[in-house]
Design goal:
GO molecular function: sterol binding
Family: Belongs to the OSBP family.
Organism: Paramecium pentaurelia
InterPro entries: Oxysterol-bd (IPR000648), Oxysterol-bd_CS (IPR018494), PH_domain (IPR001849)
Protein name: PH domain-containing protein
Largest sheet: 15 strands, antiparallel
């Protein structure tokens, strides 16, 4: 059977017309008859269902995602549905049944349904009246009894399944493992698999015990981990750091920009949801902590004896954020209102909070024994047709604890060029002013639009004293090295060639979204690390990540709608708004209450 059907592509391209050909157990589709194949769907193990919401829709569950098809009318839908199911039934009757895979599917299904069962009973218990509470508690006890019994049965089945690796060929082959273990190595492989199984059981037990420790302390965080489709696929470890991301990301991955971007011309991009594949797995809140890979540079801005050197180091540190857009051409996730992030080391602390949604405003507080860095980041983003430009008003405040100096600086604009043609790149454009309000010194950094590769990333800045005399000149390239009065004051860290598979992240940046038991125990449920869409992206679960991103955004919209109906306003917890006499704008000032109150947050964002 063959013919045209509509196929759901993504939230931006929506339904697209495709020509489908059903042959044997494979459903192939292309743009038109005789055209190049755009994809195949294997029906042997797929789930084929009708939609309750749309009588013209057919849902094919492949095991890793859903394919949505739509017919022109009921008769056409029924013909395709009958043909698909008949074809699948014929294939299943004439195949060697994969018992191993079926057992694994059943076990997965049981664990998923038990998680749902627990969630529903907990919900009912919270909503129950006093008279119903006892009956629901009895149901919960019965459910736990059944769960324990089935858990034991499933565990025994898992053990028996593993033992079959060491049995006769007949039993072994009945599981259809495609001879993955040679006969002369069955014993050793069986031993290895036993150890792997025991290790997995131990990890699962440890994860369960860990979750139970936070259940009473933070039930929102507990539910967000235990019942989330992304976190249910992960194993939480005690590893302090990591050397790479869980998934190798193709650095040359292509995405059809135009079908999406043509709808954005002239609009404020901060109000338009972006596809998951536009992103890298970091929130904008984590972006500020990324600059602290060069913490020593900022420390020199506080400790250098020469006041002009101090400003020179501050200028260099402010350029570090430019490095993050050189190799990785993907945007950060927009934080949701109330999202927080903490990054603590023995030398410094970074605390950030999304304090406003429209316009998006992020407040950041960074502190060490030498300095305090305060940032209020507000962005207005527009699309001109071939490029995106972001304007960043406001000032960054740098307070030197040693000298009591107070310096401020502004951000140049950010441009994203060659969206449609050529190689896309990020560029910092414009002028940034650095002012020492204690001494009267002024620094001027000029970042010009590149005209060729030769002048890309070029740095030119001057520092003048209060009388207008030039006291220091900076030159160089922020992707290599920078000089102050011909003296080398900064050099870019070594870039590991393997980092190209991980969004070009350095070792420091790899840690920003890392989680382990200790981190999960200490962060609030609003921390960026708890975002399941980012976690899915860094693990390579891209379809699931897109679904989670949409879910989180819809949850945010629903929360905003409820607050508007109740005439309520979101009140940031860790920062307050004050008038800044230097920038003549309002800025957000840290309240020094994060560590005391972070576990009192009652928001459920993710």
């Amino acid at each position: 059977m063959e013919g045209y059907l509509l196929k759901w592509v993504n939230p931006f391209q929506r339904w697209q017309k495709r020509y489908f050909i059903l042959n044997d157990n494979i459903l192939t589709y292309c743009d038109q008859p005789g055209g190049r194949s755009k994809g195949q769907i294997h029906l042997k193990v797929a789930g084929i269902n009708e939609s309750k919401d749309d009588t013209l829709r057919i849902i094919i569950n492949t095991g890793t995602g859903q394919i949505l098809l739509k017919a022109a009318n009921i008769d056409e839908k029924n013909k395709w549905l009958i043909a698909l199911k008949k074809n699948q039934e014929y294939c299943q009757r004439h195949q060697v049944f994969n018992y191993g895979q079926r057992i694994q599917e059943l076990l997965t299904d049981i664990w998923s349904n038990f998680a749902l069962f627990d969630e529903q009973l907990t919900y009912l218990q919270e909503k129950a009246t006093l008279s119903m509470y006892k009956e629901i508690s009895n149901i919960i006890d019965i459910g736990q009894y059944l769960k324990n019994g089935i858990t034991l049965c499933c565990t025994l089945i898992e053990e028996e399944k593993i033992k079959l690796y060491g049995e006769s060929d007949t039993i072994y082959e009945s599981f259809d493992f495609e001879n993955e273990i040679p006969l002369n190595t069955q014993t050793s492989n069986y031993t290895i698999r036993q150890e792997e199984y025991k290790q997995n059981q131990l990890e699962n037990m440890n994860s369960h015990q860990f979750l139970e420790t936070i259940k009473l302390l933070n039930p929102i965080k507990y539910n967000n981990i235990k019942y989330n489709r992304v976190y249910s696929r992960l194993s939480i470890t005690n590893e302090a750091t990591r050397k790479c991301l869980p998934y190798k990301q193709d650095p040359d991955e292509k995405f059809a920009f135009w079908p999406f971007l043509k709808e954005c011309i002239g609009k404020d991009l901060t109000r338009i949801p972006m596809p998951l594949l536009f992103h890298q797995p970091l929130s904008a809140l984590q972006f500020f902590a990324a600059s602290f890979e060069y913490y020593d540079t900022l420390k020199q801005a506080a400790k250098a004896e020469d006041p002009y050197k101090r400003m020179a180091y501050l200028i260099v540190f402010s350029l570090v954020r430019c490095i993050l857009g050189i190799d990785c051409q993907k945007k950060f996730f927009n934080p949701v209102l109330g999202e927080t992030y903490e990054y603590f080391t023995p030398e410094y602390k970074v605390i950030s909070e999304q304090v406003c949604h429209h316009p998006p405003i992020t407040a950041v507080h960074c502190e060490s024994e030498d300095f305090i860095l305060s940032i209020t980041m507000e962005a207005t983003v527009g699309f001109s047709g071939t490029s995106i430009k972001a304007k960043l008003p406001g000032l960054v405040h740098f307070r030197n604890k040693k000298t009591n100096e107070h310096m401020t600086y502004s951000f140049p604009s950010i441009a994203v060029k060659n969206l449609l043609f050529g190689k896309m790149y990020f560029e910092q454009v414009g002028e940034a002013i650095y002012t020492n309000h204690t001494t009267g010194d002024v620094g001027i950094l000029t970042l010009k639009e590149r005209t060729s590769e030769k002048d890309a990333h070029q740095v030119k800045a001057i520092i003048k004293d209060r009388n207008g005399n030039i006291r220091c000149q900076l030159s160089g390239y922020f992707n290599k090295e920078i000089y102050a009065n011909n003296e080398l004051i900064w050099k870019r860290n070594y870039v590991d060639p393997e980092s190209r598979w991980y969004y070009f992240y350095s070792h420091h940046i790899l840690q920003l979204n890392h989680i382990n038991e200790e981190i999960l125990r200490n962060i609030p449920q609003t921390d960026s690390r708890m975002r399941s869409d980012m976690r899915a992206l860094e693990c390579g679960f891209k379809d699931l990540g897109q679904e989670e991103k949409v879910r989180i955004e819809e949850k945010q919209r629903e929360r905003r709608k409820i607050m508007e109906e109740k005439k309520q306003q979101h009140i940031p917890r860790f920062f307050k708004e004050e008038y800044d006499s230097f920038s003549k704008r309002n800025q957000w000032v840290y309240l020094y209450n994060y560590e005391k109150e972070k576990h009192l947050i009652d928001l459920d964002l993710f």
